Structures are given as structure tokens and as C-alpha cells.
Amino acid sequence: MKYQPVQNYINGQWVNAAAAVTLPVISPLDGQQLSTVPLSTAADLDAAVKAAKAAFPAWSKMPIKDRVQVFFRYKTLLEKHLKELAELCSEENGKTYGESVAEIEKCIELTEFATSLPQLVTGEILEVSKGVECRTEHVPLGVVASIVPFNFPAMVPNWTIPNAIALGNCMILKPSEKVPLSCGRIAQLLKEAGLPDGVLNIVHGDVAIVEAICDHPGIAAVSFVGSTKVAKIVYQRATHHYKRCLALGGAKNHLMVLPDAKPEMTAQNVAASMSGCAGQRCMAASAMVAVGNVDHIIDKICEEARKIIPGENLGAVISKESKERIENYITEAEQNGAKILVDGRGAQVAGKEQGTYVGPTVIDYVTPGMSVATEEIFGPVISIMRTQTVDEALAIENANPYGNAASVFTQNGGLARYIIERASAGMIGVNVGVPVPREPFSFGGWNESKFGVGDITGKSSIEFWTKLKKSTTKWNPEAGVNWMS
Ligand code: NAD
Fold first, then answer.
1. Substitution site in 25, 183, 225 for ligand 1 pocket (most atoms within 8 Å of beta carbon)
2. CATH placement of domain 253-430
3. Per-domain residue ranges for the chain?
4. If you ran DSSP here, which 8-state letter would residue 228 be given?
5. What pTM was computed for the model?
6. Chain segment 35-67, per-residue pLDDT in tens
7. Sorting pLDDT into bands at 50, 70 and 90, what band is 475?
8. CA–CA gap between residue 68 and residue 48 (Å, rounded)
9. Which residue's CA is the closest to the ligand 1 atom numbered 20?
10. Which residue among 64, 213, 411, 416 is least enclosed by CB atoms within 10 Å?
11. Is 8-250+445-470's fold the same as 253-430's?
């Protein structure tokens, strides 16, 4: 194994989990075993919650301007270790080195936002009647938890760690058991940046530890990012225990391509959106609705897709099971009458035969009832459906149960606005294939792509990670008698 067995991180120490059960950590790039990850139990979680609870009074009482100094230093450390972090991310997740560099750069941007929090949480104060003041303050919740998926081993943890912790909370992080290594390095860098022991704790594992997080009475709030199936379970279970919960789920993002779209730019964006990170992005284009005759653009999309080569500018999908699942979707579509214009099945990379690669795949003449039209494939596959009008395209987009992202490619501003107003998705792009809002704008979908109120990043996250204290004060007896007296 290339790396030491992964351990939990509790109160600033690397410790073994109580039980000795582990899972292998496999690199999707070549099938090599990188490490093992422990399946922790409720006892491990309890130790982490105790450590977080003990750290909370001192951390939360520290002025926020002091707390964010840790994140100024952490940002510098992310910059210093960018290459090493990107290599680790790529190794455990299978994405290309370039994609991993972009992921760490996004971590830096997220951290920059956290350092601006003192400017954003100033609260309000007003003399509401003579001599009487009302004032609001954002107060941290206490011990909070963040449960994250495999597809962004560094970025998604950094959606929550900097903001939740800078706002004064102490955190339990539950990484994906498929990619536990980047989180360990993040914890080391935060310690080096001066984060006190116990403020961030990591407990590894799978289902059992997630259930224990939802049930633990010492945890005030749970954020979750992963599939819709598990987001629903976590949201129900955490709120059943009266916790605050924000659970982000899966997606089926639709791109609408209109005949007046710029062909080159559209084709490049569509191909990049469906294949970036091997299609394992909750913001990836997964379905395309061709409005009217856009055959010339579809030809160009195929040209672009053929330039995407597994092992060169296309990474691996996370596991053998994933590769099989994605290839089965393609085969099923073909059997049901769809036309495979570019076929990524059976992809192999010389010298990395145990790697799990799927080539870019363009499927045309998909009908709205096919599974490739409705289900999240999470691979480098785009399913093209054909319509005659924008309203028909919108009807297809609106009928899908998810609501993370939708995009339109057109040069017509009026039509773009018409679609922005009617698409049922939280994040909309116009001539943008992956419409992820950049900080300080917040990230979050609608419908079955998110359960709970607010968004996970940006200004919206302040509301999730804090509660408002409202105080009413009167110090001046000379102020006179009024209704508050
Ligand atoms: P997943 O739902 O399988 O796992 C997410 C987390 O939940 C992991 O930490 C895992 O250990 C845990 N888990 C898995 N099964 C569980 C169960 N039955 N009960 C309790 N916990 C369980 O997701 P994944 O495969 O790691 O990630 C891919 C999914 O995440 C895709 O659906 C993708 O769209 C979604 N995702 C969404 C967003 C978003 O912003 N909406 C962002 C990234 C990924």
C-alpha cells in the first residue's frame, strides 16, 4: 500500500477506530490499493463529539476576526501545497491532474470567502423607541457535522469546513469511504494553520457512522452532500432528532440548445460539461434538449467528444461497479432505439488495465421515458432529446424530479430570459455548460437536488451555521417612560 492505513482524527490526534473493520481504498486510475479506511462505530463518534464539545467554549468565544486568521494561513498553505494536494485528489478519485488543480483552486476561493465573514456577520442595531435598542448577533450552533461524497474529495469538505468553523462551530467531518485521503491532509494543514485541537474532528466510515451522526444528541446540525436517495434518509433522520439539516442530493441537468447558438462555443461547452471529472459532477450536463434543427451543432459536439481521450484528458470513474452501471445505461438506451453517436464503452488505458475508464458517449434520439433521459448516470454521457419548441424543451426539463442546474445556449437574450424564468432549477446558465456560481454567490439546487432551507456556500451558509440572538436593552433611565418601560 502506498499510504499508511487511514485513521480517525480526534482532538488533534490520529487514532485508530474502536473496531478493526476496514475497507480498501483503491485508485480508479490503475486499480492500485492506496490504503485502508476504518469503519468507525458510534463509540468513535462519541469520542469525537466529546472533543468538539470541549473545544467549543474557547473557540466560539474567540472574536471572529481572530478565528479567521486561521483561514488566512490555511489559504496560504493550500497555495503552497497545491500540487501535492492535487496529486492526492487525482490518485484517490481518478480525475485528471488538471481537474484536481482546479478543485484545489476552488478550495482556495472558498477559504477566501470564509476570511471575509467578519464583514458579513456584523448584525443589526436600531433604537426602536426612545432609549431602547434592539440588536441581533449571529451565534454559532455548537457541534455540527458535515457528511461528504466521493466526487470532490477536497472541494466539498471545503464547502463546509471554513464557513462553519470560522463562524464559531466545532465540526465532525465524515469523508467518503472511497476517498478518505484528501480530508486527512486538509486536517493536517488546518492544524499547521493554528486551528486548535478538537475544533475539527474526522470520523471515517459508511452507513453506520452517518446514522450515528443523525442520532447523536450532541450534534446540533448536519450538512450532507451526496445522492438523493441518501440525502432523503439523512434529512428525515436528522430532523426526526430535531437537528437543523441541509441535504444536497443528486442531479439530472438539462442543456437546451437553440438553433441560433454559436456552434463552436456550444459544442466545446457541452462536451466539457458532460465529460469533465468523467461526468461525476452534480453540475454535469447529462441531458441535452435539441430545439429545432441543431444537427450542425450535434456534429460538432461529437467532434469535440472524440478529442477527449481516457487516461489523457479524461479521468477514470470511481469504481468497477460504476463503470459497469454506466455502460449498462448506454446498452439499454441502444436496445431501446437510441443512436450511439460516440461510444465510450469498453475504454481501456494501456498500462492501466485495472483502471476504471469510460470514454465520452453521445447518445442521440433519446426519448423522455428512457432511463438515460431521467436517471442520474454520473458518467461522461450525454443523452440528446429532440423537440420543436422551447416550451416542449422546458416541459422536459420541468418534468425531471431534480433541480440542480439547467443551461441554455442561444444568442437571443429574450429567449434566454424566458428560459431562466421557467426552468425549475436552482442554478441556471446562459451559454455556460457548468453554471456553478462563484463566491460570494451561494451554491444550491431545488426540488430533489436539495432538502432543507438555504444554500450550502456563500452568504446563505451564514444562516445555516448560526442562529440569531436578538437582544433588547435600555440603559438610560432619563429616557422617559414609554411602552417598553
Ligand atoms: P452517496 O450518497 O452514495 O454517499 C454520500 C455519503 O453518504 C458518503 O459519505 C457515504 O459514506 C454516505 N452513505 C452512503 N450510503 C449511505 C446510506 N445508505 N446511509 C447513510 N449514509 C450513506 O453519494 P456518492 O456516491 O459519494 O456521491 C455521488 C452523489 O453525490 C451523486 O448523486 C451526486 O450528484 C451527488 N452530489 C451532489 C452534490 C450537490 O451539490 N447537490 C455535490 C456533489 C455530489
1. 225
2. 3.40.309.10
3. 8-250+445-470, 253-430
4. H
5. 0.97
6. 999 999 999 999 999 999 999 999 999 999 999
7. confident
8. 23
9. 207
10. 411
11. no
What atom in ligand 1 is closest to the CA of residue 449? 41
Give the alpha-carbon dihedral of 279, 282, 287, 290, to 10 degrees: -110
Pocket of ligand 1 (CB under 6 A): 147-151, 156, 174, 176-177, 206-207, 210, 225-227, 230, 233, 248-251, 282, 376, 378, 404, 445, 449
Fold category of 8-250+445-470 in CATH: Aldehyde Dehydrogenase; Chain A, domain 1 (3.40.605)
Distance 250 CA to ligand 1 centre (A): 8
Residue 217 corresponds to which amino acid?
P
Distance CA 324, CA 357 (A): 10
Confidence of residue 202 (pLDDT cuts 50, 70, 90): very high
Which atom from ligand 1 is nearest to the alpha carbon of 282? 34
CB atoms within 10 A of CB 88: 22
CB 39 within 8 A of CB 17: yes
CA of 120 from ligand 1 middle (Å) equals: 30
Chain position carrying cell 485508530: 16
Q: What percent of the chain has pLDDT over 90?
A: 96
Instruction: Decide if 398 contacts 423 (C-beta within 8 A).
Output: yes
pLDDT digits (tens, 9 = 90+) for 260-316: 999 999 999 999 999 999 999 999 999 999 999 999 999 999 999 999 999 999 999
CA distances from 473 to 63, 125, 253, 470 (A): 22, 11, 50, 10
Three cell numbers written together for 391:
416550451
Distance CA 360, CA 276 (A): 10
Neighbours of 52 (CB within 10 A): 26
Reported as type and span, the H/E element at residue 386 is: strand 381-387
Helix and strand numbers, DSSP H then E, in the chain:
16, 20
- Residue 136 CA, chain-centre distance (Å), reads 31
- Mark whether 282 is an active-site residue: yes
**Segment 406-439, tens digit of pLDDT:** 999 999 999 999 999 999 999 999 999 999 999 9
Mean pLDDT in residue range 210-226: 98
**Tens digits of residue pLDDT in 400-414:** 999 999 999 999 999
